[in-house]
Amino acid sequence: DTAVSQTPKYLVTQMGNDKSIKCEQNLGHDTMYWYKQDSKKFLKIMFSYNNKELIINETVPNRFSPKSPDKAHLNLHINSLELGDSAVYFCASSQVLQDNEQFFGPGTRLTVL
Amino acid sequence: GNSVTQMEGPVTLSEEAFLTINCTYTATGYPSLFWYVQYPGEGLQLLLKATKADDKGSNKGFEATYRKETTSFHLEKGSVQVSDSAVYFCALGNSGGYQKVTFGTGTKLQVIP
Question: Who is most buried in A65, B10, B25, B56, counting CB within 10 A?
Answer without folding.
Answer: B25
